[in-house]
Design goal:
Layout: E1 19-20, E2 27-28, H1 31-39, H2 43-52, H3 56-75, H4 77-80, H5 115-131, H6 135-142, H7 157-171, H8 179-194, H9 199-214, H10 218-234, H11 238-256, H12 261-276, H13 280-297, H14 303-318, H15 324-345, H16 350-371, H17 376-383
Antiparallel strand pairs: 1-2
Length: about 400
Amino acid sequence: MILTHCAVCATDLGLTRGKKCGRCSTRYCGAACQVQHWKEGGHDQLCKKIKRSGGAEQYNADQRYTKAVAVAAEACAEDTKGQTCYICTQALHWKTKEGLVRGCSCRGTAGFVHVSCLAEQAKILVAEAEENHLDDKLDERWARWNTCSLCEQEYHGVVACALGWACWKTYLGLSETDQVRLVAMDQLGNGLHEAGNYEALSVREAILSMLRRIGSPEDDMLAGQSNLASSYEAVGRVEECLRIRRDVYSGRLRLHGEEHLQTLLAANNYATSLVQLQHFEEAKTLLRRITPVARRVLGDNHDITLKMRFGYAASICFDTGSTLDDLRGAVTTLEETARTARRVLGGAHPLTTVIERQLRASRATLSARDSDVGSITEAFAAMTPSPR
């Protein structure tokens, strides 16, 4: 259940408190708000419509999906001007009349598409794998909900958010214990997070609560905790984020060993929190140990490897105790990482832009130190990433 607030006063109801409309399942904190919504809030006009749409959860998802698609198309309008969808070959979607998007790493004339076309393609591929019991193909098919089939890079920003709502509205009617529904819920949380929407926090809290209630395996619990930590970080609860990420990294290391993808992801997340809280020596020690593992297992082009190299260089640049030789080495690392990110992800990708911004500020810091002018503190302030 994603709807966790009273429809009238927005009181947080969690997953179980309050009451629901007997017809459409709209949630309220109590009878007073329900009556007010019926008499003054227009619910008397909407109730039957919401029920016909599948209930409050489905109605909300459908409405939010339509809005998210419009936002994504508008954000991509300049980039997609004069192009056509690589799936349906039309500029405007034949049914929804939505515009095109491109939120991956495709360049040139590749990758222009309608969110509705992507969603329909993913839905068909997943259904086909399930119906034919292609268990070995299911993960690959499911990736179409978040990864471009052309460049094989994940969608980001408002496009990821629109796909998150598309995925959730497709599978929300399944049983709470159905793994597909759980993954769809997770997809929505990731999409909201990508778009900088703080609603990701409530979605991820709901996911973790559900995982605990149904007794999910430890692996799933760690994934839920990791995502929740990212939402804590986004709303400034960085100490809580650090504690969770430390526990998740320890759990992944114990379950999978240091070379597993999820362990490396958890290690990078933990290191990011250490840098953010200025625990630079601890961060550098961790990154010196795990970055060579990531480069060996995942390769230099993988986004986790790029983030690790970026994090190590950033920790040196933010640390006022770094020597000139340390700073020179950090700038060299950032230059190499920026080139790789631009080649693999493209210049418009969020990770590329963050690395290149850090590189510019680090060069300024090094220049100031070399010439013994300016304040390194001012240079650090310039390096602080802007909120996404």
